[in-house]
Write a structure and sequence with these properties.
Elongation Factor Tu (Ef-tu), domain 3, 412 residues, alpha+beta, 6-stranded antiparallel β-barrel, rod-shaped
Length: 412
């Protein structure tokens, strides 16, 4: 090393001088130097790389290039096989639906007897009476006009019938007696008429004889006057006898006054009896149909309520009444089959559409879905259950069900 270089090194090297302990100062911490600019410029490449990889994965799943298919073929894997809900997988091919394929309409409804249920009320005029006896029980089969219950006014109504029958019998006896009296009186009047005729003839002869004697001077005026008086009396007796005959004799015996009056009394008695017998129905409650007692509403000792005594229905022949939305009713026609389901049924019931309603109404059978439309417009469709289904549904009147009406072919 030359002297010149040694001098330069000596000048550049600082000389450490001893520092007294009392004057030693610790320098403050300096902040870390910022990263180099080159590192910052390289960080933006990372998100770009992630976007490129994601885009490539989506394109590969969607288009499935030959290389990816070959990979899946070699490994035996399937796109989306690692999840229960795969995506980006081609859906299975849809087969064309022919016009003759089967469609259906689903509606809510309920089971009911044929002709619906009937509430039997107390008879007209018997609303104040109480139930004295109920002659049937729930589940009993009844026939039309069968007595279901007796009311406590029945004994008085039966007494009124007995009285009316006795009055009729008395009126009929009076009529018979009147006919006999008229017949006897007529015979007597005719006999009196014949006697009056004979007396008149005799009086006429006596008057003629008295006149002849007076003209010959053999008889007095008083004798002539007496004969004339006898003739006048004979004429009066004859007129009286003829009047009696006219009273009791008539071209039609039924038109005779006494007989006609007695006949009218008999007719009045018959009307009174008929009224009493009809009033007898106010003491009983009859069945209007052949059917089954579904429920008893009132009990013994009660007045029949406004809801009636009992509910009847023809449960031997059950039906289903469905409420079909007005937008689906054009597809419904009689003869279509119905499958009826309910949680209360072990297996579906079968029915056939028998009637399509003619009125659009408000829906009454609602589903349990809280967001269901509660103001829908429907048309009532009635279906007849087959014999096996009707027997199973006999004790399920009012059960809410779901009906699926099968429609063959596309709706027109």
């Amino acid at each position: 090393m030359s002297e010149t270089q040694q001098d330069a090194q000596a000048v550049a090297t600082p000389v450490s001088l001893p520092v007294p302990r009392e004057t030693l100062v610790v320098p403050a911490a300096r902040p870390a130097d910022p990263p180099p600019l080159q590192v910052i410029r390289r960080l933006w490449r990372l998100p770009v790389l992630m976007v490129i990889l994601f885009t490539g994965a989506v394109i590969g799943l969607y288009f499935q290039p030959p290389g990816l298919k070959a990979f899946f073929g070699v490994t035996g894997l399937k796109p989306g096989g690692g999840t229960s809900s795969p995506i980006a997988v081609s859906p299975p091919p849809q087969l064309p639906v022919a016009a003759s394929d089967v469609a259906s309409v689903t509606a809510l409804g309920h089971l009911l007897p044929r002709g619906k249920t009937i509430t039997v009320s107390s008879p007209y005029g018997g609303s104040d009476a109480r139930i004295a006896k109920i002659l049937v029980d729930e589940g009993d089969h009844v026939t039309a006009n069968q007595v279901l219950a007796e009311l406590d006014n029945l004994p008085s109504l039966r007494a009124a019938v007995t009285s009316a029958r006795a009055n009729l019998a008395a009126s009929e006896a009076t009529l018979s007696q009147t006919k006999l009296t008229v017949s006897t009186s007529l015979a007597e009047a005719k006999a009196s008429e014949e006697s009056a005729k004979a007396a008149l003839e005799l009086a006429e002869k006596e008057l003629a004889r008295a006149r002849s004697l007076q003209q010959g001077g053999a008889s007095s005026t008083s004798t002539l006057q007496s004969a004339e008086a006898q003739l006048a009396q004979a004429n009066s007796d004859l007129l009286k006898a003829r009047s009696s005959v006219a009273r009791y004799d008539a071209a039609n015996p039924a038109e005779q006054a006494d007989i006609a009056l007695a006949t009218r009394n008999v007719e009045v008695a018959k009307i009174q009896l008929d009224t009493a017998e009809r009033d007898l129905s106010k003491g009983t409650i009859l069945s209007p149909i052949d059917g089954t007692v579904i429920s008893l509403i009132s009990r013994v000792g009660e007045r029949p309520s406004t809801n009636g005594l009992a509910t009847l229905g023809d449960t031997e022949n059950m039906q289903v009444e469905l409420e079909v939305y007005q937008t689906d009713i054009r597809s419904i026609a009689p003869g279509q089959s119905i499958e009826i389901t309910s949680p209360a049924l072990a297996s579906p019931l079968k029915a056939t559409v028998s009637r399509v309603g003619l009125e659009v109404e408000r829906q009454t059978v609602l589903s349990s879905d809280p967001v269901a439309n509660t103001d829908a417009r429907i048309v009532r469709v009635t279906g007849d259950l087959d014999r096996a289904s009707s027997d199973r549904a006999r004790g399920l009147t009012g059960l809410e069900v779901t009906g699926r009406i099968t429609i063959t072919g596309s709706a027109s």
